[in-house]
Amino acid sequence: MRVLVIDDEQDALNELEKAISTSKGPNGESFEITGEKDYKKALKLIEAEPFDIVVTDMVMGKKRGEGIEVVKYLANRSGVAIVITAYPSIPNCVEAMRAGAWDYIEKNPTDGSDPFDHLLESIREACEYRLKNPQRQLTNPDSEWAQKHLIELMERYAGRLVAVLYERVVDSDISFAELSKRIQSTFPLAKPTIVSIPDSSSEDVG
Q: Which residue in 28, 84, 125, 153 has its CB near the most CB atoms, within 10 A?
């Protein structure tokens, strides 16, 4: 699987690339990683060749919101976009998820947990989901409903995965595998959409 990592700080970019390189794809294959500091060049890369996963910083450049441009660019494509930021806030989180991001991860979690552990777990879950559901993320009405009601979902399901069917949550879990297994058993014909609900209670610090 091909992964594009975007961060305008070289040290952060190197750390992200190193962390992802220690992981494997769903079939045990190594990730093919491309790193890019300039988000405009990254957008050209995405346009020129497909990537399975894009991990992007949120705050880059003069506008300090260029990560959203990357996510929006991917929204109608099959790639998975994961936002990782040192400046978390609920408004930014909601904007990223509504733009089509799979997940929104803090670089410096307030609970002291390892952000790279969160990132690798998110990549694994996204890979599993995309292999089972190759359709583009925002073409599904249940996915659109989840993005529209993200704030309410964050209040109840923060840090969990939810299964949405006919515009309502039918199940949730912290484990993609367990949730997927249950909904396949409960809904053998219907196909609920699984959405990752971020846990971002921090306020923007600048």
A: 84
